[in-house]
Structures are given as structure tokens and as C-alpha cells.
Specification:
326 residues, alpha/beta, eleven-stranded mixed sheet, disordered N terminus
Length: 326
């Protein structure tokens, strides 16, 4: 995907005149609101360049020190980790990290978690009884679920599940699970399509992150939602909680303002925007809690898988390719 520039300056200035350039793989609706609020508070012109996080990470790796980007924002840790491991991120001011839960911090402290999402199973009650739903992610590879599981393996949100399963149960378990999904799964282009398929009754269950269901409900109305969410057993790989993050590029031309922007993203005003936003993610900073009817964040029971454990995503991508799912 080619990144598309979105200028949020009052006069529509290009990258040469922007005070700050942000490469963002995060939800465009929410990021646009955050950038507009930051501009209002600071009077600074911010150019937002949205795109897929993997494409933007690859672009940063190609551009290196010549990149015009000051800040990188991702939906998931692997894309950020890929950039971090190439030494392209600057040390982050400790004040930003201090506003967020330490269990989601990267070990080097070069980027900050901004928001979170939970892995879930969306299901259609007319096709499967709640009592028959799996408690463990690996169960979806069993013969009981042949032809009954919707997946979007091309989504970057899907890849951390693979890494989490490998961390908890080993690579043989990953191979067995993906082999089972190859037989059992119906492949869709993206998670939105998974929700639509399950809601329509085309397939009984689907693997998604929670917010896709909530956004689907907002789009079509609660009366037209014929599906619900199921949460896997505590500490299971399927109960993974993943985070979006933001970091400052080492080659940032506007380093001080970039640090200020990243600190803003975890401040109370920004987190309140996330808490009430249409992305339906969980806010992570400054003690702000969601304003949406999500399962309470403190009731989620994710596995003991750190952002470092999730790596840069290459192993998950390779496993999907070996399984014939990509």
C-alpha cells in the first residue's frame, strides 16, 4: 500500500511546510481527531500519512535516516519492533511511559503503548450454542470446526495470535493449529468481512479483535447484529491483549515536537478521545477508562505474553506461508 498524505494544517501545507510528519498505521478516524486536537492545542501543523502498518514499517526501513517521518504509530507491536530493531527509534521521554501500564512497555522503552484491543471469537447464536464454543484457541483446529471458522490471515491483527500460541505451547502447536485452520477455515480479506460473514450466518464463528464487532454494530445498528462475542479462557493464547504504540524516529527533523506529540497521545485529553472514539479500543494512558460498553479492561485475562515476545512478526508470517494460508 502506498501511504496517502493527509494534511491537517489550516492552509493545507505539504510535507515541506509541516511542523510534524506522522506515519500512522492506526485507525484513521481516531488518529485524525487526535491530530486535529493536538494542532488546536499547540497551533502546530501536523501532516498525517496513513497506511498499513507493515507497508509503513517497510517504507521507514527503506528510507532510513532520510525519512521525513518524525513519529511512527502502529496498531500492533511487531511493525514497531521491526523499526526498533533496526535502530531507527529515539529514546522516549520517561514521562510518557510513566502514564501507561508497565506490562505493555517494550524492554528498551523506545515507544509507548497508546491503546489496546482484545482477541475474541465472534459467533452466530443461530449456528452454534454458547455452551459449545471453544475455551482454547487450539480447539479451532479440531474436526468439530471443519468449515466453520472464518479467518483473515492477511490481517496484521491475526499474526500476534500465532506468536502468542508459539510462546505458550511451542512451534509444533503452531504448525498443528495452522494446519487445522487450513482445513477448517474460510478465508476472508479482512476482519470486517469476517464479522459480516458470521453476522449473516455464512459461517458460525470467526477470529477477530473485539473492536471490529463493535464498529460493525455501530455501522448497521444493534437490531441488525445477529452475532455476539465470546472470550477465550483466562491466560489462553486466544485471550491475547494487544497494543497500539507510538515512537519517535531517531532521524526526526522535529524531535522536540515529536516527543511532545507522543506524550500527548497518552495524556488525558487524547486518551479521552480514544475512550469515546469510534475505534472502540481501550485507552491505556493517564488512568482513563473506556466510555463504550466494552467488557471492562480489568476483567480481561490475557496470557503472559509480552510485547517483546511478539517480536517483529516475521516468524508468524513465515508460519502462515508454510501452512498455505498466505
Amino acid at each position: 500500500m502506498v501511504a496517502v498524505a493527509v494534511s491537517l494544517s489550516a492552509c493545507g501545507g505539504g510535507s515541506s511546510s509541516a511542523d510534524l510528519t506522522v506515519y500512522s498505521g492506526q485507525h484513521l478516524q481516531t488518529m485524525t481527531k487526535l491530530v486535529a486536537d493536538f494542532k488546536k492545542r499547540t497551533g502546530k501543523d501536523v501532516q498525517l500519512r496513513p497506511g498499513s502498518e507493515s507497508s509503513l514499517a517497510n517504507q521507514l526501513l527503506r528510507e532510513g535516516s532520510a525519512s521525513p517521518a518524525d513519529v511512527f504509530v502502529t496498531e500492533n507491536p511487531p511493525a514497531m519492533t521491526a523499526v526498533e530493531r533496526k535502530g531507527l527509534l529515539a529514546p522516549l521521554a520517561p514521562a510518557a511511559l510513566a502514564k501507561t501500564p508497565s506490562r505493555f512497555h517494550p524492554p528498551q522503552g523506545d515507544w509507548v503503548p497508546v491503546s489496546a484491543r482484545a482477541a475474541v471469537l465472534v459467533y452466530n447464536p443461530s449456528k452454534v450454542k454458547p455452551a459449545d464454543l471453544p475455551q482454547h484457541l487450539r480447539e479451532l483446529a479440531g474436526p468439530k470446526w471443519r468449515g466453520k471458522v472464518a479467518i483473515a490471515p492477511g490481517e496484521s491483527d491475526f499474526h500476534p495470535l500465532i506468536t502468542a500460541l508459539g510462546k505458550l505451547e511451542g512451534q509444533d502447536a503452531v504448525k498443528a493449529w495452522l494446519k487445522g485452520l487450513k482445513s477448517n477455515g474460510k478465508v476472508y480479506d479482512d476482519s470486517e468481512a469476517v464479522v459480516v460473514a458470521v453476522n449473516r450466518g455464512d459461517v458460525p464463528v470467526g477470529l477477530i479483535d473485539h473492536y471490529y464487532w463493535y464498529r460493525g454494530r455501530e455501522e448497521i445498528g444493534a437490531s441488525k447484529m445477529h452475532s455476539a462475542l465470546h472470550y477465550f479462557a483466562p491466560k489462553d493464547a486466544g485471550a491475547l491483549v494487544d497494543v497500539a504504540g507510538a515512537g519517535v524516529l531517531k532521524a526526526a527533523k522535529h524531535a522536540k515536537l515529536a516527543q511532545q506529540f507522543v506524550d500527548y497521545l497518552v495524556s488525558k485529553p487524547a486518551q479521552e478521545i480514544i475512550a469515546a472514539g469510534s475505534s472502540y479500543e481501550y485507552p491505556l494512558g493517564s488512568g482513563v477508562t473506556t466510555k463504550r460498553d466494552l467488557k471492562p479492561f480489568d476483567q480481561l485475562r490475557p496470557p503472559d505474553v509480552s510485547v517483546e515476545d511478539l517480536g517483529d512478526g516475521r516468524d508468524a508470517l513465515r508460519a502462515l506461508q508454510d501452512a498455505g494460508l498466505l
